[in-house]
Amino acid sequence: MKAGFANTLFGALLLLAFLCFSFGQASMARGAGSAAQSIDFRQDDFQAQRIARKLLRREIAKYPSGSNWMRTAWVSVSPGETPTLFVMYGCSPTGNCGLYGFKRQKNGWKLVLNSIAQTCSILPSSHAGRHDISARMHGSAFQSTIKTYWWRKDRYVRVSERDLILKE
Question: According to the UniProt entry, where is the signal peptide (predicted)?
């Protein structure tokens, strides 16, 4: 009788431990990756800066030497593919910059995103196997515009634009 009770108790504890582990995993899975990931643009990746300066030479020629700065980020927009080079350059006094995305190809680089933004995020949603992009543009102290981009064919295409007005 004691052995049967011990086996039953042991089985119940194993089942309880398994259920707790399963619920914990499910809740973590639901929350994992559910928020947009802000892209951290940097000024200290000199290799990325060199590539970006070459790719944006016409854009850079529009500005006086040393009057603007460039920030870059390597972003994984699709699992199993090489990261995309994101560049912010040509910033206005309001903080909005040219936002460019370049995808590495066999014979060089291809422009896959051309926008204006102050901040940029990778969304958890995806289209055609690549994460969607959100770009926020500053309008005034109380107004912003959020643009959403989806991957279509071979580049990012803007699919929505929303104005946000903050109340005082």
Answer: 1-26
Domain count, the chain: 2
What DSSP string runs through 69-120? -EEEEEE--STTSPPEEEEEE---TTS-EEEEEEEEETTEEEEEEEEEESEE
On whether both 12 and 78 belong to a single domain, the answer is no
Residues 28 and 45 in one domain: no
| 87: CB partners within 8 A, 6+ apart | 48, 52, 55, 56, 70, 71, 72, 98, 99, 100, 101, 102
Q: pTM for the whole thing?
A: 0.75
From 131, 90, 85, 80, select the one nearest 108 (Cα to Cα): 85
**What is the percent of the chain with per-residue pLDDT over 90, rounded to a whole number?**
58
Q: In DSSP terms, which residues pair with 48 in a beta bridge?
A: none
Full residue range of the structural domain in which residue 87 is found: 37-165
Residues 18 and 51 in one domain: no
Determine the Cα–Cα distance for residues 104 and 30; give it in Å rounded to an integer: 32
∠ Cα 90 53 74 (to 5°) = 90
Show the tokens assigned to 156.
Answer: 């990012």
